[in-house]
Amino acid sequence: MTLLKNWLAGIPAYLWSGWGALASLALLLAAWEGVSLAYGALILPDPAATFGKLLDLFISGAAWPELAITARRAMSGLLLAILVGSALGMAAGLSPTASMMARPIVTVVLGTPPIAWLVLAMLWFGANDGTPVFTVFIACLPVVFVGALQGTRTLDRHLKDMATVFRLPWRMKLFDLYLPHVVSYLFPAWINALGTSWKVVVMAELLSSSNGIGAALAVSRSHLDMEATLAWVVTVVLTLLAVEYLLLEPIKREVERWREVT
After folding, report:
1. How far apart are CA 242 and CA 174, in angstroms?
2. Strand runs labelled E in 62-180
3. pLDDT higher than threshold 50 for residue 262
4. Which residue in 111, 206, 226, 232 has a CA-CA distance of 20 to 30 Å to 97?
5. All structural domains of the chain with their residue ranges
6. Which of 67-71, 86-90, 99-103, 167-171 has the lowest mean pLDDT?
7. C-beta of residue 19 within 8 angstroms of C-beta of residue 245
8. How far apart are CA 185 and CA 155, in angstroms?
9. Is 237 helix (H, G, I), strand (E, B) or coil?
């Protein structure tokens, strides 16, 4: 409850500190407008037309079901990757032998393009939720695993020895010593995996599903509807920005408050 109160109280200051990000987004919109003026709406519709189309999609109710389906698939695969990758990564970090054995496996999984996993998933699961969820899971798993591995391996041995000498309770060692350090590595990995999950799920839906944002992109592409295509892309980007900067980043700052110099 205290963590939630601190998080809510810190949101205004956090939003105020994001003026630099807002400035960069304004520059991006200006560049978008300039390219649209240079090449025409057939190549790249201007931001006003795109956001107008986006507003129409949400007002008409067409966007909500597709967004919900894509979010469910992306979050399901990401949650599985977080649970499995975090557990395996921390276990490997505690054992040098397990770490050495896991390294080539992680390299193989990272080196295999997501499109290859998607083709395999289509053969295994068919045109249902299993295909995008599995593809997201396998694409995010190595990222989370490496973060958990590095966080566990870099624990200060002197602090662990001190905790042993002073016989700290396991609860204190876990929540005050080990978890804050490991989470400082896990959170960046989770945020990175979040972005990966949405990119991969849209690609998977585009090629294997009849619903979701990826499928909507396929329909707008077949109709040569650039405004709708960009509107769906903007929907994904805005959702990612909202989840990362309004939810994950404030929590990350609160969890890493121990890093602040007092």
Report:
1. 31
2. none
3. no
4. 111
5. 64-256
6. 167-171
7. no
8. 11
9. helix
Q: What is the pLDDT of residues 56-73, one digit of tens each?
A: 999 999 999 999 999 999
C-alpha distances (whole Å) from 90 to each of 102, 109, 152, 256 are 12, 18, 6, 19
Dist. CA 26–CA 29, nearest whole Å: 5
Condensed to tens digits (0 to 9), the pLDDT of residues 1-56 reads 555 566 555 556 555 556 666 777 888 889 999 999 998 888 889 999 999 999 99
Measured on CA atoms in the order 187, 25, 238, 226, is the torsion positive or negative?
Answer: negative
C-beta separation of 244 from 236 below 8 A: no
Residue closest to 232 by CA, chosen among 244, 245, 220, 246 = 220
Is residue 231 within 8 Å of 57, Cβ to Cβ? yes
Q: Answer yes or no: pTM beyond 0.85.
A: no
Cα Rg of the chain, angstroms: 22
CATH of 64-256, one of 1.20.970.10, 1.10.3720.10, 1.10.3470.10, 2.60.40.10: 1.10.3720.10
Cα–chain-centroid distance for residue 54?
A: 22
- CA nearest to 221, candidates 161, 76, 231: 231
Q: SS3 of 211, please?
A: coil
